Give the backbone structure.
Amino acid sequence: MFKILEARNLAGNIYEMVVEAPRVAKRALPGQFLITKMDEVSERIPLTICDSDPVKGTIDIVFQPVGVSTHKYVDCLKAGDYFEDVVGPLGQPSELTKMSMDELKSLKIIFIAGGVGTAPVYPQAKWLHEHGIGCDVIIGAKTKDLVILEEKMKKVADNVFVTTDDGSYGRSGMVTKCLEDLIAEGHEYNYCVAIGPMIMMKFTCLTTAKYNIKTIVSMNPIMVDGTGMCGACRLTVGDEVKFACVDGPEFDGHKVDFNKAMQRATLYKTEEGEAMLRYQEGATHHGGCGNCGGDK
Ligand code: NAD
Ligand code: FES
C-alpha cells in the first residue's frame, strides 16, 4: 500500500498527489513513468512522474482525469488514503540522462511543455539544473488559469516563456508560435524536448524540422496498460515498429508517424476499432511476457 500524503487541485481539471513510494523515488529518472492502481480490482493507470524526493521517499504525480479510474482518483482519494499499487519506475529514461557532460554542454535546449505535459518536463529541467546544464522552457496553456508549475520551473530553467492560446497571460498564441518568435528574436536552440498533447508534438516537430532542431517527444498519451502487453502504444518510428511503454516513452519526433499514432489511438477506444486493428496488424503486442515473442 502506498500512502497519499497530499492531494490537491493544481489548476482547472489538473490534479497533483504526493505519494509515499520510497523505492520508486530512489530510482526514478526523468522520462520514466509509473503505474498506479487504486484497489485490487481497478485498472492500471500509467502516469508520468512530475517530481521525486529520494530522501523523503516521495513522488509527485500530476494528472488530468479522463476515464473512470482517474475520475475516481479525484473523487475518492484524499490525503491519508492509499493506492493499492504503485509500480515503477518504468520505461526508458530520457536520452539526456545518458549523455556525457561534453555532449550535454554542447546542447542549447528548449523544452516545450503543453498543458499537463508541463509536469513531465519539470524533472528533466530539474535534472539538467542539478548537473549544471541550463535550458529554456516554453509553457503553453489554453488560458491563464491552466498554466501549471511556472514558479517551480523558474527555479530550474534559465528562461521560462509562458504563452496562452487566448493571450490571457504571457505571450499570445500556441507553443509553436512562441518557438518561432523566440528564434526570430535571436534565441538559438539545437535540441528540443516537446511534451504535451499529440497534436502539439506533431506541429512542434513540423516547426523544429524547418530549423533543423533535433526534437524528442514523449508518446505517453497512447499508453494503456503500460506493460507491453495490450498493444495499444504500438507506433511507427522511422521504418521500425516500437512500443511507447517499453521502448520509450521518448522517441525522435522527426521519425514518429503521428498521423498513424493518432488514428490508432482513436481506433483503440472502441471494440470495433480494436477488432479492426487486430484484423490489420494481427494480435500485436510487445511480447514482454517472454512467451510468444510478440510481433517483433
Ligand atoms: P491543451 O490542449 O491545453 O494544449 C496545451 C498546449 O499545447 C496549448 O496551449 C498549445 O500551446 C499547444 N497546442 C495544442 N494544439 C496545438 C497545435 N495544433 N499546434 C501547436 N500547439 C498546440 O493540453 P492539455 O489539455 O493540458 O493536455 C492534455 C493532453 O496532454 C492529453 O491528451 C494528454 O494525453 C497529454 N499529455 C501528454 C503527456 C506526454 O507525455 N506527452 C503527458 C501528460 C499529458
Ligand atoms: Fe500496452 Fe504499451 S501500453 S503495450
Remarks:
- The radius of gyration is 19 Å.
- The pocket of FE2/S2 (inorganic) cluster (ligand 2) is lined by residues 223-226, 228-233, 243-245, 285-286 (CB under 6 Å).
- The CA atoms of residues 231 and 284 lie 5 Å apart.
